Amino acid sequence: MPIDFIPRQDDSFKAWFDAFTAYAQAHAAELGLSPAQAAELVAKRDAWDAGFGRHIEARNAAMGATAEKDRLRKEAEQMIRFCSGYIQRRRETTNDQRVSLGLRIPDRKPTPLSPDAVLRISPPMLILDWSLRGQITIHFGPNPSDEHRNGLPEGVKGVRLWCAPADPEKDLEHLAWEWLADDTRSPYLHVHRVPGTVFYRAQYIDRKLRLGPLGGPVSASVTL
Question: Which residue among 1, 3, 79, 200 is buried most deeply as judged by most CB within 10 Å?
Fold first, then answer.
């Protein structure tokens, strides 16, 4: 199928249509266009410009309304969490009250943890930030790109982090891996005093301190 000469994107179409109309109107006789045809072309261009302008205004208004809605929801959720946390912690609060409020009923009996449950959980993902000199921030967990939605999986106590300096003579599995830290909350800040490339891996730890499978290595470059 031949490529259409008319731009598909509205912004590009507007610029192209304006140039097309301006030239066609100025050279209508040379191009064989009647005055009526040239006038109709200008009218169609003006109508399009007006419609496109209304579209941009509506889009900007919608974006502003969405941002306002998101801000108000965030403030509302903060207040809801404060109130619900206070209510949940009160000894006098009954389960009937929790149900009426749409809150969870606390499980007073710990669920027995399967010995191999941690082995069935996918390893934590790692996102590294080395934008600051001499340090690497390690975001870890099931959703490290968004710390607000990065809670540990059920039954997991924390994450064990490993690190190893790059070695061109060894493959990734045979680097000099060393224990870095056990952490329960992302992110972890690793301070360096030597520049170079560093690799990291991680695995989950359950409440009985049993280890899950190791995740794949990720690397970062340290500058001082």
Answer: 200
